[in-house]
Amino acid sequence: MIRPATFKDIPQIKGIWERCFDDPINYVDFFYDRVSPPEKTLVWEEDGTIRGMAAAIDCSFCFREQALKCVYIYGCATLPEYEWQNIQSRLISRIEEEAEARGAQMSLIIPGNMMLYSFYRKHGYTSEFPYRELVLRSGVLGDMGEPDMPVVDNRITNTEMYAIREEALYHIPHVRWNEKQIDFLTLDAITYGEHLASYSGEKGKSYVVYAMRKSHMYVRECLGTTDEAVRTILSVLIDQNNPRRVHMRLPLGGGLLPFEGHKKKYGLAKLFSTGKTLSDFEPYMNLMLD
Q1: Per DSSP, what are the bridge partners of residue 131?
Q2: Max alpha carbon distance in the chain (Å)?
Q3: Please, what is the Cα angle at 287 between 178 and 202, to 5 degrees?
Q4: Could you tell me where the DSSP H helices lie in the chain?
Q5: Contact assessment for residue 210 and residue 218, using Cβ atoms and an 8 Å cutoff
Q6: What CATH class is the domain 132-263?
Q7: Where are the domains of the chain?
Q8: Rounded Cα gap, residues 43 and 216, in angstroms
Q9: Which of 7, 158, 191, 273 has fewest C-beta within 10 Å?
């Protein structure tokens, strides 16, 4: 039986999460406290046992002044011993139906591994949200000199980050998160070892969400109101951390060095009712719960 989850279900949900994902077990409490109430998660229960789950997070898909209501399907998991029951397909279909009834026009999902891409395509997820992977060596940006204002860690507000993000992505079709969701996304990043650096000065405003691992810098998102602001913050961070390589996720056709890098698979989307895809766009989906 499919039903909304309640707080009483969280111990069982934690059990599924622990068996199916690599997240720390307290992440479940973190998620339901800061992102989504339990009733936004659908569970499949039989004989008192929750066998599968999937959460629905409302968001928007935006391009310039246009915006579509969307639902991001997250935390899809089934206990391995019940995978033969086709539980995930049924949960996803129910989330799509309920989202469409609320006025959503599209659903989004990020496959957990390469094998799941074909599974979701069979369910209508035919629009791709790729990103551009760019690998930089130290020194490739050149000497930017001392910035007029310092680059600071973990000091940018949700409102400031939202404004920078939307200005930077205005001409790029993208998934928009509201300020409360950005609060969780950044807190999640910082809690689990990432850094959030920001710059605000004469060259514009910018921020970088990144992690250092084994002398390499991994940039999950880097956006700014100007190219100079992006180059400034990256130059400072590279000087401070001295990485051997900088691995960046960037929009296709936008952001730093727009004609360099390689296209990588990431998210998928399904448009409701229209029968169309987003193949004419190069949409951007990043800074996700993934």
Answers
A1: 264
A2: 66
A3: 80
A4: 10-20, 27-34, 87-101, 115-122, 158-168, 179-191, 227-241
A5: yes
A6: alpha beta
A7: 2-109, 132-263
A8: 39
A9: 273
Do residues 108 and 267 make contact, with C-beta atoms less than 8 angstroms apart? yes
Take residue 179 and report the two structure tokens written for it.
């300020």
Q: Is 215 left (phi over 0), alpha (psi -120 to 50) or beta?
A: left
Q: How confident is the model at residue 79, as a pLDDT? A: 94
**Residue pair 83/129 in contact by the 8 Å Cβ criterion:** no
- Structure tokens that stand for 274 in this block: 């229209």
Contact 131, 251 (CB under 8 A): yes
Return the residue matching tokens 């898909």: 61
Express each pLDDT in 16-74 by its tens digit: 998 988 777 778 888 888 788 899 999 999 999 999 999 999 999 998 888 999 999 99
Over 1-60, what HEC string results?
CEEECCHHHHHHHHHHHHHHCCCCCCHHHHHHHHCCCHHHEEEEEECCEEEEEEEEEEEE
The CATH architecture one would assign to domain 2-109 is 3-Layer(aba) Sandwich (3.40)
